[in-house]
Design brief:
Chain A is mainly alpha-helical. In chain A, 67% of the residues lie in helices and 9% in strands. The structure holds a DNA duplex.
Chain lengths: 168, 168
DNA sequence: CGCTAATCATTAGCACACTAACGATTGAGG
DNA sequence: CCTCAATCGTTAGTGTGCTAATGATTAGCG
C-alpha cells in the first residue's frame, strides 16, 4: 500500500518539469526576494543580511567561537570566517583567542556592536509591516520552513547511512 | 482602526530579535538546505541547481535571449551571463547572435542538452520522495512562497514610488 | 609521558548573485 | 536621414556559500 502510494507520488509527468511548478525555484526566489526586501532597512545599520544574522547571534550570547556561530547559523566555518573579518573591520565585533583554548576564537561585541542592538529592535516589526504579514502568518511560514529543513536533514542522514553501509 | 492594527503589528518586542524567531533566517536555511538536497540528484546530470533552472527554462522554450531567461528566473542578466558560458562549455547549450537583432543572443539547446531532458523528468518525483512531500504539500508551500514573493514585490514598488516622489 | 587523532580557524578555489559601468546595436524623434 | 536615448549582453568588483586542504592546538589513549 505504501509502495503504491510512493510509486504514485514519484510518477513522472511532463508538467512536473515546468519551471513555474518547481518548489525549489519558488523557494530560492522567495529567499532572495525577502533578503532583498531587508536591504533598505539593513543599509541604515551598515549590515548585509548574513552579517545581520551573525549580529543577532552575538546579541543573544557572546563571546562565542566561530564553530558555535556557524552551528547556530547552519553554515560552514569557512563561510563565517571572512564574514567576521568584515564585521571586525566595521568595528562591530572583536576577535581574540579564547582563554583556555588557544585554537578557538572568542568573538565578542564592541560597544558599537552592542549599541547597534537598540536600532535593530525595530527591524523585525518594520519588515512585518513592509511585507504586510501578521505575527500569525510569520509563525506559520516559519513552521513550514522548519518542517522543510527537517525533511532535508532526514534525507541527508539517509544518504550518509547509505554511504556508510556501502563503505563497510 | 487599521492604524491601531499596524501599530500593534510593529510593536517591538525583545523576543523578536531571537535568531530562532526570524522568518528570513528559516527561509534562507530552507532554501540552502533544499538546494543542497538536490545536489546528489543533479550531480548525475552534471548540473548545479542554478544551471538546472536554466535548463528547465530552455526545455520549455528555445532559443531565447539572455534577457528573457533572466526575467523568467528573476535574476540579473549579469548573473545569467557567466552561467550560460559554463553551460556552453559543458556542451548543453549554444550561444549565437539572434537573427534580425545583432545585440540580442539566441540561446539554444545542443542535441546533448535536449537529450538531458529525458533524465531530468525523474528529478521532481525523486525530490518529492527524498523530502517525503506529497503533491499537495508541495503545492501549498509553492503558493505560500508565491505570496511571499508578491509581498516583496509590492514593497519594492512602494519604495520606488517613494523615490520618484522625492525626486520630483 | 608521548604520540596520534580530533578539533579549530583559515585559506584557496569554484560558483552564484548583486550593482555599476561599459561598448555595441537599435529605435524613435526631429 | 541622423542623432540621441533605450536596450542588450558582458565585465569588474564585492559579498556570500560550498568543498578541500592546511597549520595550529588540544585531548585521549597506550
Amino acid at each position: 500500500m505504501n509502495q503504491r502510494l510512493a510509486a504514485a507520488a514519484i510518477e513522472a509527468s511532463d508538467e512536473d518539469l515546468l519551471l513555474e511548478h518547481q518548489l525549489c525555484f519558488a523557494l530560492t526566489v522567495a529567499s532572495r526576494s525577502v533578503v532583498g526586501a531587508y536591504k533598505p532597512v539593513l543599509d541604515k545599520l551598515g549590515l548585509t543580511h548574513p552579517q545581520y544574522l551573525v549580529m543577532l547571534c552575538l546579541w543573544e550570547s557572546s563571546p562565542r567561537s566561530v564553530r558555535d556561530i556557524s552551528d547556530a547559523l547552519a553554515q560552514e566555518p569557512a563561510t563565517i570566517s571572512p564574514l567576521l573579518r568584515r564585521l571586525e573591520t566595521a568595528g562591530y565585533i572583536t576577535r581574540a583567542r579564547a582563554a583556555g583554548n588557544e585554537r578557538a576564537l572568542a568573538v565578542g561585541l564592541t560597544p558599537s556592536g552592542a549599541a547597534l542592538r537598540q536600532q535593530a529592535t525595530a527591524v523585525p516589526g518594520t519588515m512585518m509591516e513592509r511585507l504586510g504579514l501578521t505575527r500569525d502568518q510569520v509563525g506559520q511560514l516559519h513552521q513550514a520552513m522548519m518542517d522543510l529543513i527537517a525533511a532535508t536533514k532526514a534525507a541527508a542522514e539517509r544518504d550518509a547511512d547509505a554511504r556508510d553501509a556501502a563503505g563497510t
